[in-house]
Amino acid sequence: MAFNSMAAGQLPQQIRRWHIACGILAVLALMGFWTLSDPARLATSGILTSGDYAGAAFCHRIVDRSFSIMGRPVGLCARCSGMYLGFFLYLALVLISGREKWTAFSPLPILALMVTFIAIMGVDGVNSYSHFFPGFPHVYSPNNTLRLFTGLGTGLAIGTFIVPAVNQTVWHQSAQTEKAAVGTFGELVGLLVITILGGLLLLTELPLTTYILAILSVLGLLLILTGINTILMLLLLKKENSYHRSIQAFPSLAIGFVLACAEAALLVTGRIWLIGTIHGIPGLG
To answer: Are 247 and 107 in contact (CB under 8 A)?
Structure first.
């Protein structure tokens, strides 16, 4: 079963959500066309610069390990771009398919595969890091393609664990559906196909697609923090399982997002204070 047919009983809702998603992509495309049409606008783009600072809070941003838009590095390195884009795609497909209140975790074989994705990224990350030290042993030569796709797999894994946890915390039991958003290998294959296509688009480094995907990657980072913040906030305030409808949950999720932005701002301020730059790490790249 393909991911986009997950909630066949809610077809009209899915169609509306696809329309919204396409509308958002169209707006991003128009923003991209306008920004890319002038090198000066690209160099001083407010949204890309904001992404640089948000990304620098959690990513080394080494230039030769990052993708670029017409020579301008994006906000996250290749691995982080993949990781947060993978999460964003997982969440976007869950929302479009109407499964945002589905609370069960995926079956154990799928979870085991997701853990494997994380382990593969860990191995590639250690091997990649070893190349900072010429005399340090390493298994193979790293590259941005491996960084991107191992990151994408980990992003899907993060979504598989975080999204059900958020749903279990936010929604009242009567609003919950005790099913997994990705419950079969058929659904997983559909998700993987879409994720791989996203990765291939980013690999092309076509200016417009890279612009859009770079923004979505940074948004994925902030949305992970939003989910974690929302869980902790509702538990601390003893407001978990309080909401029946999305409009009721929106204020809590919005606060979680604002906190995510504040956390990123605090961390990047600390980075600038410690190493003096948001571009790479002195001595490493």
So the answer is: no
